[in-house]
Structure formats: structure tokens, C-alpha cells
Pseudouridine synthase
Amino acid sequence: MKGLKNNQEQQIAGRLVFQIDKEHEGLELKEILYDQMKLSSRLVRKLKRTKNILVNGNKIAFHAKMRKGDRVEVIMEEESNQFEPQDIPIDVVYEDMDLLILNKQPGLVVHPTKGHPIGTLANAIVYYMQTRKESFKIRFVNRLDRDTSGLIMIAKNPYIQQELSKQMIDHQVEKRYLAVVKGALATEKGTIDAPIGRPDPEDITRMVFEGGQPSVTHYEVVEQLRDAAVVRLLLETGRTHQIRVHMSHIGHPIIGDELYGGKVDTLIDRQALHAEILRFTHPRTGVPMEVKANIPQDMLDLISKLS
């Protein structure tokens, strides 16, 4: 989005600005919104309904033609959260006007559910917002299992959520994980290309089977341990429990993963899986981003015990 990238100094939280230059002169407002700013039809309909699309501070027709120097401004109103604030520690890895990226601790559910109505990451984020006198609707871009630690992205407005979700679908977000698995792998590097699904809708476990969804995981051994290995994994697809299912499928379940056959004594009380690195393009600025979350202490202790 050339207009947004070239006008970063004009960008403020909750607003998108597109400055019309000679290249875009003569285009209709709707062409700027859809083709240049890449807004979804759903978001545009909502903005139109709330009268939050302005040109030079005024509401104009969608078919109006733009002139050089016009300023198109999209205002994204704050939306409230219905979650109860709770003083739960969070580890902020990166934050700006559009994004909050956290290193989630293991054992924390991401979003309130019937079984976990409070004590979740969402409750912690609402408390964090209140301490900073901020307000934005919590929009999780990615999710992690309760017992998986690591990076979680939260979009602070619908535009950022829309654009990052597109990047996810187009495989433009690189997600790298670190895991400690059972046994010595036969090869240092490999790819697991095996469909994953849930044959029994009443069962939460997934498995590799012919009727599943295409699923691809790349792995590389980082360190060989005593009857175990530290592996780095790159997800090409993002199926539920993908890494856990794939590693179990090739005979190297994640240590501590009771659901998929990785329970080992009392060395660790959860699956040894950590979302370590995220690489993506920042939707507002177009700048390539890389964020990294430090390996949690329980996994470091596990590696030390098995070395």
C-alpha cells in the first residue's frame, strides 16, 4: 500500500490515511478503498454505515473522483471488550499502535471458553490495557494450545487483523517452533507431508488419515540429547495440533504431550513446544518484521536434564 507506507508520519492509532498523488488522481474513492488501501468489503460496509470514511475531513460519494493532494482518512472506532480484567503477568515482546505481540506462558488458555471463563490471556490483556489507559478490541491473529508457550499476535484494529489474516492464508507469515521430542531422528532435516483431520467429531484428538486436510511441517534437528532431540519446526500449513500430530506420526512425539504419546516421567508437566519466531510484513508500513520469544525455563531445564 504505497499511500500508507509513504505517509507514515500522518498515521495515528485507529486511523488509516492515504494521500492521493499524481499516480492515483482520477480514481474513484471506492477504487482507492478497495484496490489501493486493500480494505475488505465487510470493513468498508461497516465504515460506510458509521460514516467513518472521510476525504479532506468530509463525507463524499463513493464514485467521486480523487484529485492530487486529497487526503482519504479511515477512522476505526474503538470497540469494547466484554472480558473481565485480571492481574495476570504477560510478557510483551513487541507493541505499536496496531499490534501487540506476547510471549505466552505455558498453562494459560488464550481466550475465555465455557470450561475456562476467566484466568485467560484475554483477561490479562484487558488488565494490561487498563493500566496503560488504552482500549481496543482483542483480535487474536494466531492461537496456541493452553500448554504451548510462545508468540501470540493481537491486532488492535480490524484492518490489521484483516491484512495479517490474509498473509496467514497466503503463507506469508513464517511460524517457527522449538520442541523437544523423543528419540534420535534418522535425518537431520526432513519434511512431513501428511493430511490431518478429526475422524471422530466427538474426539478432540487429531490424526493423520487419508481424508484429512493437507498438512506440511518441516523440521531440523538443533541438538541431539539422550534418547531425545531438540528440533526446530517450520509450519507450511496451520492445522490444529499439527506439530504434535506430525511428530507423533513419525515416531517422535513431543516430550510431555500426553495426548499424542509423549509423556515421560516427571521431566516436564506439559508438551515441550514453544512458538519461537514469527516473520511477517507489517500491514501499515510494509516493513518486514521478525519477533522472537525466549525459550521458557521449563524447556531449558528439560534440555539440561537430557543432555
Q: What stands out?
A: Residues 267 and 305 are 8 Å apart (CA to CA).
